[in-house]
Amino acid sequence: MEGELMEADVVVSSRLSFKKIQSSEKYPKGQSTRRWKHLKQILQSENCTPDLPNYVNIESPPSTQPCKRICDVTGFEAPYVDPRTNLRYANAHVFKTLRSLSPDQVHQYLSIRNAAVVLK
Amino acid sequence: MTGDDGDQINAVGRGSMSFVSRIRRQTDYNTYPPSIPIVIDNGASYFRIGWAGETEPRVVFRNIVQRPRHKATGETVTIVGDLDPALMKYFDCTRSGPRSPFDSNVVYQFEIMEYILDFAFDRLGANGSRIDHPILITECACNPVQSRSKMAELLFDTYGVPAVAFGVDAAFSYKYNQLHGICKEDGIVLCPGFTTTHAIPFVDGEPVYKGSCRTNIGGYHVTDYLKQLLSLKYPFHSSRFTWEKAEDLKLEHCYIAPDYASEVRLFQEGTKEAEEKTRYWQLPWIPPPTEVPPSEEEIARKAAIREKQGQRLREMAEAKKLSKINEMESELSSLRFLVKQLDQVDEDDIPTFLSDTGYASRQELESTILKVTQSLRKARGEPMNEPSEGEENTDSLNNEKYPLMNIPDDMLTPEQLKDKKRQMFLKSTTEGRLRARQKRNEEELEKERRNQLEEERRRENPDFYLEEMRAQYKEVLERVEQKKRLKTNGSSNGNNKSGGVGRGERLSAAQRERMRLLTTAAFDRGKGEDTFGARDEDWQLYKLMSKDNDDDDEQPDSDEAELARLTSRLQEIDPTFVQKVEGESLTSGEVPPRVRQLTEEDYKIVIGIERFRCPEILFHPNLVGIEQVGLDEMAGASIRRLPHEETELVEERLTSSILMTGGCSLLPGMKERLECGIRMIRPCGDPIVVVRAMDPVLDAWRGASAFAANLNFLSNAFTKMDYDEKGEDWLRKYQIRYNNL
């Protein structure tokens, strides 16, 4: 190890005294990407009683207030929607820039809002 | 940047708040007896660990792990926390990105968790054969039991911990602040964290999870939003907007507007206030070196060099020409000598004599002589033989090459006739070629003359000429476009509906003709059977049709050629000429892409509206597509969810003690906005008091530390035996009682 690195001491040494089983033994090099269950899977396999609060129970409800519509490009109030691309825009000036966007950018703007149509 | 005590501090942020990473190894591990618990705040953004009863965690770092390969040794090493960019050069980071053990706010990757715990304990100074202290670790509200049990397993089995307790970080923060009188026994804690936001009501000092709610939006989403907006606004600089940079910008410049709509209007109208609120980030930019016009001497020197080079080339050419001339002269003389010799030799001996030299007959020899003399003359620069002499030559050549031409047919044998035909053919082709060449020459001369005329006209009156040209160009363009339009049946540019015949659209003359022919052919002649192809004459129909099409095509050709000529001419002489690209719609093709110099302006990043647009998503998550309530409404939702027997009297008390904690609550303007928002959803006249925690970032750890320092902490913790005996169900119901604080 280079001197600078040793001094900085950022690397975790592979053998620690206070551990009963070292990481290198627990996770042998071959199968380093062990399949851990993702949150969705954990939640599915959880058999929980619905009356007690659990992770799924306490999710917030959807908003009851009317959705705020802001222009995708500038952030102003946007009462209009472009029929071709489904982007919201505030005025004619913004509309001009909208029409000159590349399809890639349009897709990105929409995906920020989670409104992009993904063709698989 | 190093602080007083030599810690490696990466401080980021403004004012008193700082996200500090502290990773120096502590040396006083052994001074703590095994009864003192270790307190861990395991957050999605930062990991904090320290001793119970203290006010500051000893070790703080970002909760991510990287496993790059060491370049020199090739082994894979583990690096926890932010990697110092100066040390990056030792590692090959291609296959390792930073990974977090969290999925949303739940720990699911325990391998990474293990690396993190390794690092944390190591830095705390742990030695000995096991971690001999009870551990208090935070988790998210209503943590799934699988995650909890795996965490307990990890701590018990791998580290040999005697006892473990789990608590919720927001609750610890609230209790800590309650201890210090900031908030009361009953209240609500609002905790916008890194990936999620919680609202948990407290009744009688204990959190009521039944009434809590969680929205999946947090500081991570705000930073991500900012990053994406800036990348889209400035695609040229998109590589500059890394996630870390966006986080820095967020911490420094973002704020929460008291009312989004009115703030936006300020910017829309371009008021002075808006100007003041806009921040500019100037990227480093080096102006391209301006070209100094070359001075007089420079020009003179360059010209002299060029002259010299030209002269050298000319000399070389001269020398070559001379040598060639000499060669040819010598050849000529040798040939002449040969001819003279031939004269002296007998007729019969000619073939044998000539076989040495490589010439077949006397005529060949003479023709070669002629050729060489001609080329010699040309090389010497003497005028070419006049066409008359050429013709004579050709005539004599003709007579020689085509000896059979002039003899009338009936005197020749059939074989000779064939020969004669061949010769006639040859002669006509060569003559044809000659004629074509002549015509081409004439045409070129003609064109030259025309160009000369044009040039003169242009020189006389440049403006007028230009105008004329432009008008002509427009006319021709119109004609060509119209033809095109007719051809494609007037279908517009974006309209891809079929230009097919038979849909009632305008047909050109050619297509009408085609239709007519086809329908007459297909006309049922009454027999009920289609006998179209039976006769050969039927197929002539197609010849007619295609001929019609051809007629149509010839005319536009000339127009298009004219157009091309005009375009090129205009491009030469007119500096402002813009070629109208055919087929482009007028709306988009208006301004041709002009390549202009990049100015300093292009390198200036303007952050105006984004300053408050990004944190707005905490209050309106549907701006980023998450269909849940925002911060202000969460308080209302939480109160609504409380079990009914408690609500009546408690509601007022709840709203009069609302605590903001968590990293995101440091954004300026949040307090006012929350007050406003909550007032809107509560009945009029209710007391609403919103306070920020003393230190939103560290209070969770401090609360946990205070909790662990309490004497009956152990009654809240469970040991390995408990865990083994009582099983998962018990673990699910396990909760600590916060009121000990």
TrEMBL record, chain A:
It is found in: Nucleus. The keyword Metal-binding does not apply. Coiled coil: none annotated. The keyword Protein biosynthesis does not apply. Its main location: nucleus. Keywords: Nucleus, Transcription, Transcription regulation. InterPro entries: INO80C/Ies6, Vps72/YL1_C. Signal peptide: none annotated. This is INO80 complex subunit C-like. It comes from Camelina sativa (False flax).
From TrEMBL, chain B:
Gene3D superfamilies: 3.30.420.40, Actin, Chain A, domain 4 (3.90.640.10). Residues 376-406, 425-458, 483-508 are annotated as: Disordered. SMART domains: ACTIN. Pfam families: Actin (PF00022). It comes from the Eukaryota. Residues 430-458 have a biased composition (Basic and acidic residues). Belongs to the actin family. This is Actin-related protein 5. It comes from Camelina sativa. The gene is LOC104765002.
